[in-house]
Specification:
alpha+beta, 3 helices, 25% strand
Amino acid sequence: MSAEERAKELGLTFPEQAAGYLNLCAKTGNLLMTSGHVSDLKGKLGAGLTVEQGYEAAKDCAVKILRSVHARHGSLDGLRVIKLLGCVNSTLEFTDQHLVINGASDLLHKIFGKETDGYHARSALGFAALPTGAAVEVEAIFEIKG
């Protein structure tokens, strides 16, 4: 089953995207680089939000990223996930940013394969604040395969 088919089987849709202030997915050579995509969930991990809520917020970011990549590339097929940067709005004491960003990684593993094209490098960092008060922001780099 292709990445596109797996995404649709998981219920992902790919509506048309209007051009915005910034390019949500830029192409250079054989790379697709996304802007940071923020979660709809607002708040701070370690101060009211749970790891489980953060996980779902990171998954939400990954869905938005996939929609932007799809809008730019026309498909999810023929891509390999290279790198994720996950930013978590969290308290100084919160140290489970990696568990939060697993929400994005796990979705990409399901779509592109954990041992194959979805196997990616990743950073998961804590931030004092994120734009619009978002709980999570994620950006990604994809390779367009041969």
